[in-house]
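User: quick one, fold this
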Amino acid sequence: RARTLPRTLAEYARAPYAPGPFYARAARFLRDAALEGNLYNRYTLGGYLGYWLAPRMKTFVDGRTEHYPPDVLDDYFHIARQLEVRDGESALAALDRRGVDVYVGVGLPVEGEAYYTTPHLDGAPGWVLVSRSVDHSVFVRRNARNRANLARVADYYRARGVPFDAERGFDPLAAAARRPAWAIEEGVVPPDYPALVADRIGTDPVARARARDRLALLAYLLGDYAQTVALDRETLAELPGEVAPRERLVRALLLTGAVGEARLQADELLRRTRGEPPTGRVFRMIQAHEQLALDPRATVPPAAAVHATPFLSRAAMAAFFAAGAPRMGAVPGAPALAALDGTGDGGAATGAD
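Assistant:
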């Protein structure tokens, strides 16, 4: 997206663009890992992804509505919404029918976000997480056709000294522990992640509480819901009146299958807030989760009810990234961060984007 309006072809070629709206790290991973096959992607990203990835990858849609028959767009929205079952077919089944090899989820659980799809395949049978940041995910279908893709992913991480298990999938926090500079460069964790880890076990109680809160939200955004549960339990043991950690804990408990404890925490939230926000959305979310869990005919995972309920404001996300939003290119302080990894290049991936 250019910041200036080019007047000539030369100006157009030189015009800068903001990579954020295009989730450029996801595109860079797909390109550098040399993945191949059929790709499910957000409607607005198709042109950008096609530019970087064609002809090895075929996008599902690329924004040119007039070029697609209605059934393609119907399937696109059906998969993006996840909660819907159409003609008895779930979103996962639609991905199967369309022969999708690689799924790119994007977005944050922010109010007003159009289709938060980052966590949609968390724990989905037959899919392997191969890349994750706070606002994108990449999953590869586990089948014979994609053995070569998974081998390429393993090679990609091996070359960067980042742990990856093709059976269990990519573990973003394990990667951050092993290669913090690489994880910062790739937007897996925020730039102040090493300081957050240190503050969490430090002696300053205020810094400790702030670090724990940000780390809990980070773990949630990365799909490590068990880590979120552990951190938010710590916070609430010290600060039982905090609302945001308790709501987040309810969500993470539902996503880890601890439904009974989630209800108890929701009741405690109701008691402490006296019905004020966010109590209403929490109980609506629990009700939707229970309806899916108790319906023997349901083909939609109960987790979809949680992911379909946004809980963060744009101001909250701005505060989360206040220490400096992850961005493409060099990271400020990279030489110091490189020392954390024991590397000389800061773990930066190759590529000019």
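User: anything notable?
Assistant: The two ends are 13 Å apart (CA to CA).
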